[in-house]
Amino acid sequence: MIKAVLFDLDGTLLPMDTHQFIEAYMKSLAPHMVNIIAPKKFIAVMMKSTLAMIQNKEQEKSNQQVFEETFTKETGIQWEEIVEEVDRFYHEEFPKLKKFTNFNPLASKVVQAAVDQGYKIVIATNPVFPQVAVLERLRWSGVHEFPFDWITAYEESHFCKPNIEYYQEIVERLQLKPNECVMVGNDMQEDMVASELGMKTFYLKDHPIDRGNPVYSIDQSGYMDELLEAIRNQSGVFRSV
Question: MF terms per GO, please (predicted)?
Answer without folding.
Answer: hydrolase activity
